[in-house]
Structure to design on (111 residues):
């Protein structure tokens, strides 16, 4: 069995989609300011749906695995350079950091 899609409710569909495309390579295939469909390299479908009050639990996040610690460091630096508040990666269950994405959800980047 394969998980084929996940839906996230977000406060700003366009900003969240642009963020996921720019930093994580997802590809958009249609939608509007209220709903967007994104795809990853393995066929996972991530849909973004507009919501007024987005309130995920504090531990909720989606994750993007990276092939190396260097990739984690590079994404972290790109985010910092573009003005996002991110802590440096640290050794935990992996070489990892979290970022608050536009739209109201968290992302973990790990190798």
């Amino acid at each position: 069995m394969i998980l084929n899609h996940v839906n996230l409710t977000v406060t700003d569909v366009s900003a969240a989609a642009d963020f996921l495309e720019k930093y994580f390579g997802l590809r958009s295939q249609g939608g509007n300011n209220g709903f967007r469909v994104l795809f990853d390299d393995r066929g996972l479908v991530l849909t973004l749906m507009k919501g007024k009050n987005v309130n995920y639990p504090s531990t909720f996040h989606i994750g993007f695995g990276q092939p190396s610690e260097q990739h984690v460091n590079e994404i972290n630096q790109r985010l910092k350079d573009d003005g996002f508040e991110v802590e440096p990666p640290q050794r935990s269950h992996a070489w990892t950091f979290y970022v608050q994405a536009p739209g109201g959800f968290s992302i973990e980047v790990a190798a």
User: Anything to note?
Assistant: The chain is about 25% helix and 35% strand. The chain has one domain: 5-52+61-110. The CA atoms of residues 94 and 111 lie 6 Å apart. The radius of gyration is 14 Å.
